[in-house]
Amino acid sequence: MAKLKAARATDVPSALPPEPDIAADLDGLAAAASSCSCIRAGAAEATTTAAEGRPLVVIGHRGKGMNTLVSPDPRLRGDVRENTLRAFNDAAASHPAVAYVEFDVQVTKDGCPVIFHDNFIYTQQDGEISGKRVTDLDLDEFLSYGPQREQGKAGKPLFRKLKDGRILKWDVRSEDALCTLREVFHGVHRRVGFNVELKFDDDLVYTEDSLTCILQAVLKVVLEHAGDRPIIFSSFQPDAAQLIRKLQDKYPVFFLTNGGTQVYADQRRNSLEEAVKLCVAGGLQGIVSEVRAILRQPSAVAEIKDANKLSLMTYGQLNNVPEVVYVQHLMGVDGVIVDLVGEIAEAVSAFTVTAVQASGSQDGGGGVVGERMETAAALAVAAGTTPSFSPREMSFLLRLIPELVQ
């Protein structure tokens, strides 16, 4: 997926051939798993595996990972405040394989794009916790929350409301101030690209005029300050995704979807099939799916990538498991958004390198694809750096995983 680093939307990578047929028998799955991610060459013979010819793009979720405050895993609680300059730069510095950082953009009442995930921001005053909608704040008030860049200045304490309704003090080990989109362009290492998620509230109804106003405010900053930095736009809001594509053709646009793992009133958000329809109708370049949807429905990879020539990335907590990322790599997924940025980037780098080493020991013929996969697995096991299962074991996983994630 190296072409994603190019600036123009037309440079997004083309689709790859189909993934394994989950309905096939185990031997058939083994053969399919060995060749599922071969690069299209316009011929029947597949001669290059995904691991040999296509690096898996690693994207830091909200920088160096989201702050899951109640996670039993301290790594997932976050050692740095999400969606801040420090989070983005720490992700960039964590491993060379981290190609992008992902962050959430909202627009304040006075028209300034800022970086923040939640729809509401909470603080405590006189013992009472109160929340305000981020888009109802002007810029100065938004920046008054949390740590302050100005030395000696105290900000309002930050709290976060969880999905179960609890409101907790938002503490992390390494703090940083909230920031604007403009600050991110100037304050984050230019080595990494930006996956700009256009954030909207599911509980609000947006007119086309209101969406246009918000998106134009974001576009103005991007076009003025991006320079040659790779940019991807993405959004869960179907109309916003299609509209940002109409407003510009310089950067690729991806539609974010839960792929049916949650149900919404808008049917366009409820399945991978609907996501494909929306992308094709709107001229979008790709889909970012919840990873469980892809694992439940592996045949969708072929529909997305081969039949409709879209790129495919995934997000979700399962992307913090190296074995799950490895399975996706073999299926043909182009990129993964992850929280354990350094760990997953190291794993991706390791299994990519071992696969390339394995390919170098073969003669390049289509008949040795399975042998390449076996050799790559053997090298990985010897190095102790990559999930240690053979193509036959991988085939079993590809059959089993859709059941496990139901």
Characterise the protein shown here.
The structure is a single chain. This protein has 406 residues and is α/β, with parallel strands linked by helices. The protein has 15 helices and 14 strands. Strands 1-2-9-10-11-12-13-14 form an eight-stranded parallel β-barrel, surrounded by six helices. The protein has a two-stranded antiparallel sheet with strand order 4-5. Strand 4 and strand 5 (128-133) form a beta hairpin. Helix 1 (26-35) packs across helix 15 and helix 6 (181-187) runs parallel beside helix 7 (208-225).
Brief summary of the model shown:
Helix content is 37%, strand content 17%. With 406 residues, the protein is α/β, with parallel strands linked by helices.
Which keywords apply here?
two-stranded antiparallel ribbon; 14 strands; glycerophosphodiester phosphodiesterase activity; EC 3.1.4.46; 37% helix; 406 residues; 8-stranded parallel β-barrel; hydrolase; alpha/beta; single chain; disordered N terminus; GP_PDE_dom; 15 helices
